[in-house]
């Protein structure tokens, strides 16, 4: 029986988020495809500037331990001089660009994210979720086009226990999507067990197969509980999000600002984190205001 991790024909982009799940996917694809066809495969990590240092170290370590080249990309805003007036929905559409960076030169203070917000003139949120699409997938796509690819397959690390995230139809783009973990029946416990057996791991807490502080540290898609924990224990990280809210006069979460969240935590105290019902714990969910 053929391995579900065998590469499809043609060019392949492997989307590596810097997390355990996509790391497992990358490992199994490498294992199933030796000798490695580096001439038609690109492993791409797109850094938003708000990933934690542990994530950046993990991406570097995967490259070293598995002897695979990982391309580090970051979104860049480069004005062309064309008209740009976000309030009237006029955009300098050719201003989107990217840079190839390294572990040493990667942004660590949200610079790519801030440039994207500057372009749109307002903050992303659950309704206008333009950040991950532009900072990650579109940035990777631009790189592939610059490399001369006309068509390709993108490998995405969606497991078999998250079917709601699997596209039912292929996108009408230059690329098609491929979900090898889903095809292999890999679930959260499988991913956790895999990393327990490896000589290295992502140095962030794994809670039942979930890494609460993974990806963008204060992402508005994270639960109220996770964002509150960041505000309580690492306000120096949460302050970045709060400062953008003050600058643009908006909020990432429709129910409350980061400053309001911090104030609420300070008034209520630690009991909030001892009562499971005090804070909404659903990622992507609707959290009620206090």
**Main structural class:** alpha/beta
Estimate the global geometry from the Cα principal axes.
globular
**What is the class of the largest domain in the CATH system?**
Alpha Beta
Count of all domains: 2
How far is it from the N-terminal to the C-terminal residue, by CA? 54 Å
Largest sheet: 6 strands, mixed
Order of helices and strands: EHEHEEHHEEHHHHH
Query: Could you tell me the number of beta strands?
Result: 6
List keywords for this structure.
290 residues; 2 domains; globular; 3'-phosphoadenosine 5'-phosphosulfate sulfotransferase (PAPS reductase)/FAD synthetase; Rossmann-like_a/b/a_fold; transferase activity
What does this structure look like?
This is 3'-phosphoadenosine 5'-phosphosulfate sulfotransferase (PAPS reductase)/FAD synthetase. InterPro entries: Rossmann-like_a/b/a_fold (IPR014729). Keywords: Transferase. It contains nine helices and six strands; from the N terminus they run βαβαββααββααααα. With 290 residues, the chain is α/β, with parallel strands linked by helices. The chain has two domains: 12-196, Rossmann fold; 224-273, no CATH class. It has a six-stranded mixed β-sheet, sandwiched between helices. β2 (41-46), α2 (53-66) and β3 (70-77) form a beta-alpha-beta unit. The longest helix is centred in the middle third of the chain and has 16 residues, at 131-146. The protein is globular, with a radius of gyration of 20 Å.
């Amino acid at each position: 029986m053929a391995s579900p991790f065998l590469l499809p024909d043609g060019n392949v982009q492997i989307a590596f988020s810097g997390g355990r799940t996509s790391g497992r996917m990358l490992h199994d694809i490498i294992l199933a495809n030796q000798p490695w066809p580096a001439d038609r495969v690109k492993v791409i990590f797109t850094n938003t500037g708000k990933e934690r240092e542990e994530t950046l170290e993990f991406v570097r370590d995967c490259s070293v331990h598995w002897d695979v080249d990982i391309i580090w990309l970051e979104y860049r805003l480069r004005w062309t001089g064309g008209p740009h007036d976000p309030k009237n929905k006029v955009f300098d559409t050719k201003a989107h660009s990217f840079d190839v960076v390294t572990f040493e030169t990667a942004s660590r203070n949200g610079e790519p994210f801030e440039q994207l917000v500057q372009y749109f003139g307002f903050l992303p949120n659950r309704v206008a979720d333009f950040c991950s699409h532009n900072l990650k997938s579109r940035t990777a796509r631009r790189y592939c086009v610059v490399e001369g690819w006309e068509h390709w397959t993108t490998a995405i690390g969606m497991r078999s226990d998250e079917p709601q995230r699997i596209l039912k139809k292929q996108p009408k783009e230059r690329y098609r999507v491929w979900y090898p973990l889903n095809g292999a029946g890999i679930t959260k416990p499988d991913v956790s067990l895999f990393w327990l057996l490896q000589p290295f791991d992502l140095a962030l807490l794994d809670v039942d197969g979930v890494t609460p502080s993974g990806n963008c540290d204060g992402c508005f898609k994270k639960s109220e509980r996770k964002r509150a924990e960041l505000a309580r224990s690492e306000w120096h990280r949460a302050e970045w999000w709060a400062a953008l809210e003050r600058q643009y006069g908006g909020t990432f979460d429709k129910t409350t600002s980061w400053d309001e969240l911090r104030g609420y935590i300070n008034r209520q105290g630690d009991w909030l984190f001892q009562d499971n019902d005090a804070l909404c714990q659903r990622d992507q969910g609707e959290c009620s205001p206090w």
